[in-house]
Amino acid sequence: MTTNPLDDATLSPFHKKLALFSSGGPFLDGYILSIIGVALAQITGQWRLNESEQGLIGASTLLGIFLGAFAGGWLTDKFGRKTLFTVDLVAIIVFSAAQFFVGDVVWLIVLRLLIGIAVGADYPIATSLLAEFSPRKYRGPLLGLYVTMWFVGAAAAYIFGEMLTGLGEGGWRWMLASAALPALAIVLARIGTPESPRWLAKVGKVEEANAVLEKVYGPGVSIADLPEEVKEGFNVRALITSGYGGRMMFVTVFWTASIVPLFAVYAFAPAILGALHLDGSMAQVGSAVITVMFMVGCLLACLVVNRMGRRPLMIHSFLWSGLALLLLGLFPSAPTAIVMALFIGYAVLIGGTQIMQWVYPNELFPTEIRGSAVGLASSLSRIGAAIGTYLVPVALSGLGIGVTMLIAGVITLLGAGISLVWAPETRGLSLAESAALGGKSSSRSRPVGLSQP
Predict the structure, then answer these.
(1) Distance (Å, rounded) from C-alpha 400 to C-alpha 80?
(2) Is 153 in contact with 26 (CB distance < 8 Å)?
(3) CA proximity to 49, closest of 40, 38, 60
(4) Burial class (CB in 10 A: 0-12, 13-18, 19+), 220
(5) What is the 3-state secondary structure (H, E, C) of 413-452?
(6) Residue-wise over 362-396: b if at least 16 C-beta within 10 A, else e?
(7) Calpha distance 186→179 (Å, rounded)
(8) d(C-alpha 313, C-alpha 254), whole Å
(9) What residue stretches are annotated with the Major facilitator superfamily (MFS) profile domain (predicted)?
(10) Cα-based distances in Å from 371 to 3, 84, 196
(11) 148, 152, 304, 397: least surrounded by Cβ within 10 Å?
(12) CATH assignment of 13-193+232-435, given 1.20.1250.20, 3.90.76.10, 2.60.40.3250, 3.10.180.10?
């Protein structure tokens, strides 16, 4: 294994701050997608929403993420990471605050769509920046901690949502508008973040790249220390026309299998727990507890991702969490303690797949197309997530909670099969090594494009 000052750097205060500020995007995503589940309990009664309208409100943000993730990925590859790192959050502030004044279903759906576009754009921007600054030893855990903040945001949404319910009929307006406050704090924290030296080197801004490298890594570090990966000359067409198409297929399919059940559950967690005999405030408290367990699962996955390896972690995570959902589906009338135990088991065990959503895409693609690849994978995976979220209220009323949970379990177990066949191992590799076609990443079986002879 070759060494260089970037890939083998120690974890500095700069890296820690960048990881924290970057994680603001998933925090807001978790908050925004979860607070709507609490707010809908009030909105549905006041506006007399039917099941289709509830589904559209829940799915609109995911559709926005679908649009925003690819757009943000393309923009960050073309114009850099730094500026877009703050601009997208300004949009979240504006559209979140506007929800307070919304007067009908159509405008609420439109605003949720626009918020989703801004949230989706932040994912490829922030993760590309974090991956390109992170030393190889810490890249997996830092990207894993990034997604952990999604669950912190979701837990905060359930807690504050329950508090704001006490404001009466207008409580849901305060719930939806409240996302503007953490978004403002994150924007202020991100000011002053430097541009990625890998991206600067790619576009020929040598002096700027050297200045950033010296500031972050110390005197004497320059673009000469960057691996050859930044000079390969790929563009976004490589996602389709080269061997990277196989990698894109793998990332998109496993990501979809991971988030379809999770996002569907999160958008309607109080309703699902209510169907499992946890009603009223107990459903809200149960949602918050399960969310904390999701966070615990991600933290545990971060601790073992380097020891266990990317591939085994994801296979086991899919397998055991899928079994927990199947048991929920088979025994929906089980005692409350067992229902909560199975939900908590799913929450903890699915953590491995959650952190790999951001580790794999950033490790399997080169700097030139990293943002576009992450954005496209995020966008494509949200198609299934949006469909799943839209169908949850329909499935709950038409099929029942047992069948709904069985479907979620089957999708999760399909993820285990996909990982067993396709997942590569990138543990301990530099970005150049893991992103290179025909490089050192390995698995027993890969889709076309994960390696070439």
Answers:
(1) 47
(2) yes
(3) 40
(4) exposed
(5) HHHHHHHHHHCCECCCCCHHHHHCCCCCCECCCCCCCCCC
(6) bbbbbbbbbbbbbbbbbbbbbebbbbbbbbbbebb
(7) 11
(8) 13
(9) 18-427
(10) 25, 12, 12
(11) 397
(12) 1.20.1250.20
Question: By the 8 A CB rule, do 268 and 37 touch?
Answer: yes
- Our CA dihedral for 140, 142, 147, 151, rounded to 10 degrees, sits at 130
pLDDT above 70: percentage of residues in the chain: 84
Joined tokens for residue 131:
């991956």
Contact 40, 94 (CB under 8 A): no
Q: What is the distance between the alpha carbons of residues 255 and 360, in angstroms, rounded to a whole number? A: 10
Could you read off the pLDDT of 242-296 as tens digits, one per residue? 678 888 889 989 988 998 887 666 555 555 666 555 555 555 566 667 778 888 9
- Half-sphere exposure in the Cβ direction for 378 (13 Å, CA): 39
Angle between helix 51-79 and 84-98 (nearest 10): 160
Question: How far is the C-alpha of 362 from the C-alpha of 130, rounded, in Å?
Answer: 9
Which amino acid type is present at position 388?
G
Nearest-angstrom CA–CA distance, 175 and 241:
45
Tens of pLDDT, residue by residue over 100-146, are: 999 889 999 999 999 999 998 888 888 888 888 888 888 888 888 88
What's the pTM?
0.73
Q: What is the 3-state secondary structure (H, E, C) of the chain?
A: CCCCCCCCCCCCHHHHHHHHHHCHHHHHHHHHHHHHHHHHHHHHHHHCCCHHHHHHHHHHHHHHHHHHHHHHHHHHHHHCCCCHHHHHHHHHHHHHHHHHHCCCHHHHHHHHHHHHHHHHHHHHHHHHHHHHHCCHHHHHHHHHHHHHHHHHHHHHHHHHHHHHHHHCCCHHHHHHHCCHHHHHHHHHHHCCCCCCHHHHHHCCCHHHHHHHHHHHHCCCCCHHHCCHHHHCCCCCCHHHHCCHHHHHHHHHHHHHHHHHHHHHHHHCHHHHHHHCCCCCHHHHHHHHHHHHHHHHHHHHHHHHHHHHCHHHHHHHHHHHHHHHHHHHHHCCCCCHHHHHHHHHHHHHHCHHHHHHHHHHHHHCCCHHHHHHHHHHHHHHHHHHHHHHHHHHHHHHHHCCHHHHHHHHHHHHHHHHHHHHHHCCECCCCCHHHHHCCCCCCECCCCCCCCCCC
Closest CA to 69 of 116, 103, 114: 116
Give the span between the Cα atoms of 2 and 22, in whole angstroms. 28
